[in-house]
Amino acid sequence: MFQKMKNIDTAFRYIRLVSVLFITGTLLLCVFIVTKSYQASQQSQQRVFILANGKAIEAFAAERKENIPVEAMDHVKMFHHYFFSLDPDDKVIQEHISKALYLADRSAKEQYDNLKENGYFASVISGNISQEIEADSIAVNIDQYPFYFRYTGKQRIIRPASIVTRLLITEGYLRSVARSDHNPHGFLIEKWRTVSNQDIQSQNR
């Protein structure tokens, strides 16, 4: 009788030990699965797929501070492209200037107003003049905020009888603002001024 009770007690302890080990193993497995799932979720959130020309291109998300130099240079480049790329069409001029003014403060608006007051845009339309700009270099100093930039580019003024190439140098500062559809980089150009804008080449057509 006592031997049978002893066997039952031993079997119960054995079953309890196996149950504890099974439950512990199950809990550890659950923790492992949850951890791995969380890591996979975090990694997937760092990847972004961009649809360009019907093709999905994989991009990786990163902290903004890692992208500041690239985004700042592109912001400056796009501002100058919109401000200085003109065609003899009032609608095109207004569209480009409107896009440019979203990227800068009143200093750009003042330069636009001065050009408009002096009849520059009217002469572009009446003279069938096209204007293009190409960036040579864009330097941005991110060591001190707001970020100082210096833009150097070549401006081509295409007239019916000639093409004039000008060297354009401007400078200003970049301040961080909220991103928007009109300002995707989240910067605003401040204290923008033209350092130099002089002819370097002229050729007949």
Automatic annotation (TrEMBL):
InterPro entries: Conjug_transposon_TraK (IPR022276). The chain crosses the membrane at residues 12-34. NCBIfam families: Bac_Flav_CT_K. This is Conjugative transposon TraK protein. Keywords: Membrane, Transmembrane, Transmembrane helix. The keyword Membrane applies.
